[in-house]
Amino acid sequence: MIHARAEMRLAEEYTEAQERGEVARLGQYPRDVADHNISTAADLGLRRDEIHEAGLILGQ
Question: From the centroid of its chain, how far is CA 58?
Answer without folding.
Answer: 13
